[in-house]
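Supplementary Methods. Inverse-folding protocol.

Structures were first reduced to a discrete structure-token string of length 176. This string, shown here, constituted the complete conditioning input.
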């Protein structure tokens, strides 16, 4: 009942326009789509929450996100790597070919547990987590950056121009 109430409240917040995309999300997703890169959502949130968010904030990207691994798709939620392993299996990709973008310590632990490189952009909710929780991140930024709203690199390689680009993401993947 508590989970259902939480999802109803979240849906109402999304519908009311109370939630917004963080800087750089729409820009980077568009660039990845234009380049033909596969994108997926791997979350412990429920499918109704993902649906509400996409319908309100990213309606044009629903076709670009054909794979959603949500909380109800796995037995063990983040920080367990099961959701990322399931995504890798369904995408038929090796972990070395995939970069996760996460915003929490649990998400980072799940992605790293599946063998992925991880770019962390801490959210308001994860801002209270201790810095050492994010030590395993390949890079850590305050957000993805947009023109006129550059990101700040907290750890990892410099981000020229203050906007995460596909070439920046490429340099975060393991070389091999």
């Amino acid at each position: 009942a508590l989970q259902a109430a939480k999802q109803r409240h979240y849906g109402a917040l999304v519908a009311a326009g109370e939630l917004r995309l963080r800087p750089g999300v729409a820009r980077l997703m568009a660039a990845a789509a234009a380049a033909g890169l596969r994108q997926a959502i791997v979350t412990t949130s429920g499918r109704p929450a993902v649906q509400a968010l996409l319908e309100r904030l990213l309606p044009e990207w629903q076709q670009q996100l054909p794979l959603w691994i949500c909380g109800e798709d796995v037995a063990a939620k983040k920080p367990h790597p099961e959701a990322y392993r399931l995504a890798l299996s369904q995408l038929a990709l090796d972990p070395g070919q995939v970069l996760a973008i996460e915003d929490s310590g649990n998400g980072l632990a799940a992605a790293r547990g599946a063998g992925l490189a991880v770019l962390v952009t801490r959210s308001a909710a994860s801002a209270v987590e201790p810095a050492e929780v994010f030590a395993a991140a390949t890079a850590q930024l305050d957000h993805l950056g947009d023109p006129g709203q550059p990101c700040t690199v907290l750890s990892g390689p410099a981000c020229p121009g203050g906007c995460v680009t596909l070439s920046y993401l490429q340099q975060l993947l393991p070389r091999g």
